[in-house]
Amino acid sequence: MKIIVGLGNPGAKYAGTRHNVGFDVIDYLAADPSCGTARAKFQSLVAELKIGSEPTLLVKPQTFMNLSGRAVREIFDFYKLTPADVLAVSDDFNLPLGKLRLRGQGSHGGQNGLRNIQECLGTDAYPRLRLGVGQPAGGEAIDFVLSRFKPGERAAADDAVARAGQAVLLWVREGLDVCMNRTNAGDPDAKPKKPKPPRPEKTEPPKPKPTDAEDKVTKTE
Question: Domains in the chain, ordered, with CATH?
Answer without folding.
Answer: 2-190 (3.40.50.1470)
